[in-house]
Amino acid sequence: MRLVFASLLAAAALSSSVLAQTSTTPPMGAPGSSTTAPSNTAGSGNPAVTSKPAGSPETTGSVEPGANSFTEDQARSRFEAQGLTNVMDLRKDDQGIWRGKAMRNGQSVSVALDYKGTIQAQ
């Protein structure tokens, strides 16, 4: 009987500690919340699609092949967010990399965007 009682007490103590850790946070975008909902018209949960890292350079590195979930409009928006203009001729190649042409500082450059959101402009 003591074993059953001790087991019940242990179970009660564990369940109360779990309940004590539950917190209520305001919904995303509500006053007092620290986050806002991402603005993604395509509905992807990929953070590379929905946000641009603060202070990102125009060329962030080498693009890598992979399964790219960016749409053409999302790829264009990412290039434009980096200060590239007149983005045209966007095509996704057989390695999943969006490639095209754009203008930067009055000069035509080749652009590429990989599945991770890495942009290359040359």
Q: Biggest sheet, open or closed, and with what strands and sense?
A: 4 strands, antiparallel
Q: How many beta-strand segments?
A: 4
Cα gyration radius (Å): 24 Å
- Class computed from helices, strands and strand pairing: alpha+beta
Taking strands numbered 1, 2, ... along the chain, how are they ordered across the largest sheet?
1-2-3-4
Annotation keywords:
single chain; 122 residues; alpha+beta; 4-stranded antiparallel sheet; 3 helices; 4 strands; 28% helix
Report on the structure:
Helix content is 28%, strand content 20%. It has 122 residues and is an alpha+beta fold. It has a domain at 57-121. The chain contains three helices and four strands. It starts with a helix and ends with a strand. Strands 1-2-3-4 form a four-stranded antiparallel β-sheet, covered by helices on one side. The model is unreliable at 33-44 (pLDDT under 50). A hairpin with a 5-residue loop joins strand 3 and strand 4.
Topology:
Blueprint: H1 2-21, H2 47-50, H3 72-81, E1 85-92, E2 98-104, E3 107-113, E4 119-121
Antiparallel strand pairs: 1-2, 2-3, 3-4
Give a short synopsis of this structure.
This protein is an alpha+beta fold.
